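Subject: for your reference before the review

Hello V.,

The reviewers asked for a structural picture of the protein, and I figured it would be easier to keep everything in one thread rather than splitting it across files. Below is the amino acid sequence we used in the manuscript, unchanged from the supplementary table.
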Amino acid sequence: MSRTVKNKTVPRLVLAFVLLLLLSTIRVPKASAFGSEEHETITKEVLKKFGFSDNAIEKVTGANLGQDSIICYGPLCPGTSNTEVPDYHGDRLSGETSLQAFDRLRNFISKAKGWVKNNLTKCDVEKAWIALGQALHALQDFYSHSNFIDKGVFTEEEKAEIKKALEDPSYNPKALEKLKMTGWGMKAKDDPEKYHHDEKNKDTSSCPLGYEAYEAAVKAATEHTAAFLRRLKEELKEEDWYKLIGKPKPPAKPPPSVKERTIKESTGKPLLEFTPPDGFFEISIHYSSNWTMGLTVLEGLPNGVILLSSNPEPSLIYTATIGSPDNPPVTLVLWNFTSMEGPIGLVEIEYSIVVTEEAIKYPSVARRCEHPIPGHVVLYGEVLETDANGTRYKSIIGGQQSILFESEPIIEEEHEDATHDPIDVYTGQAAPLESYVPYSDVKNATVSVYPQWLKFTLRLVDQIPERPESFTSLTVGVDKDGDPLNNCPDIPFDGVDTIYSVLYDLEKGFWRLEKSSYEGFWTIPINTGAGFQISEERDTLVLWIPKGELPGLRQALRWKVVTEVNLVGDKAPNEGAYSTPVSIYNLVVKILPRTLVKIGRVNYTADPTGEVRKYLKAGEINIEMEPLVSVFEDTRKIFSRWSDGSSLNPRLITVDRNITLTAEFTTEYLLTVSSDYGGLAQSTWLTEGSIVNISAPTVVNISAGSRVLFNGWTGDVVSSDPIVSLKMDWPLSIEATWRT
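And here is what came back from the structure prediction:
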């Protein structure tokens, strides 16, 4: 609904365009602007009510406002020497009727709506957001550039018919005969329909028809924007709607079992909604002598592991993951706590989520497309309490958290270890072979370095019993700060200052994880966010340690493995400690949204903001950008150079620090010339800003005694001159017309 470009953020090409206008002597028609403030307010208000994410709102609103920055420059523009593209605003040009202007407007809205659907199907959400913004802009402009809200013109029934016709180009009710669109590109006194923009627009609160008309136009535009989105939601598949609003589809909560349902109905207690902040939550148990806590990861990731610790420790833990590639798995964790001495009091629970490599194949995100972005998991927990009188209570906790993961470690180092070499763990001396325990013998030890985690994988000679009969521990020791002066000097943990031990508790009958720190002596177990997993084959232990627990970690990590079954076990390495480089750097490549860049041997797709972020180890790596990117069918980008001045593509970069590289492009637009005669038909890609001259013959002989005469140009350029000069600042399509 705009006639000027002000108070807006506009693309670079548009700013250059405006500069050209300012330098020219061509007069810009004077008109008020139902501009950025109105469009922004209407669009944001409605999108928020429909649950659009902040990012989606920003992109859709930006595309809406951008419609007022698309300018046609030069003497060949339709209707006047300097105007904006009329299709986007519903303007009636000189020589047009109101119905013709209305047809152009509603055809554009219908076309843009089709772009939304097609791009969502192709998982190109960025383009869908742009198309939605364009459609809403045109729809909103109708109400300030027509007589729709003028008093006494239409009945309510007729208004409903016109609204339907605005979205359906095939629907032509009789009420359209009374519709008028504001004239543009002519003087008011020359307007044959006597409904000129200068006199009849409702663009501002000071419009010629007064504030009441302006307010009615804003109200009508807001209502129809909401109605348009309601219909769009009904027409889209559910998964495409969630792509459009930019949010993951919320998973349904699992139905309670019959037993749980009985508990809930019999107690009548209200459910407690609770959002766990940053992987930690507390529950106060005031009445129970024992209770069970179940935590469910809904829409979880295949083979994803949830790691938990609590204070006090549970007496029993069960875990299970149920699901398949076609049905996203649900991870269940069940604790049981028992207190024989009255209320338990405050229970502190910490959890973290580890995602394994296989989980990447079936990500739990709303955008289940070829290149999904990291998504969300939803935590849903149930607390069942039984008090001293036997009364049972049920509460629910839950919340949604974002997780970011890497499918591959950034650095991985594997070490083989000799087998059948038992030692006395605390002297380092060889132990008799008759004391050898195969599941304490390390075959190889691997450390995998991720941005936020260290993963240690210990492969053993034999299976670890589910319930060992003797004291058993599998320990990884690390030097958390690289300072040899504060490390333990004594065997077997000499050279490290922190140990993570997976132990079997003979008294309580379950496996647990302990962390201890050396401070001149080994401390009692301290809290940790680390976790462990024993493989189904029970011959492999995986230990995850958060990097945040190793604050002094620098370029290299010193680490070792010590196992023990009743004083006899194994060490890896046999002497000293391994040293593994752990420096990781962040590479950010800024390109175009949803386009590809090759880093090393892997292709990555940019997120909706046009960024690819990749963690890399120190060294050299190749980067290659797509040389040509199709933006729309009639617009493309050609790679020109990188932000550091290099034009090499592909190119080799040295990774020894965090790096940000931006790809720079030139824009090309498609010029389409159509003609039935004269050999003029062509489709040509031209660089943005270039000038092209098109010349048509005035006479074309068809056959003996038969010829056609050049009549004029139509389409994006309207002219009767056979020679036209075009500036390629956007895609252009023109057609030569002929007469006999």
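For the response letter, the relevant points are probably these. The two ends are 40 Å apart (CA to CA). The first strand starts at residue 71 and ends at 73.

Happy to draft the paragraph if you're swamped.

O.
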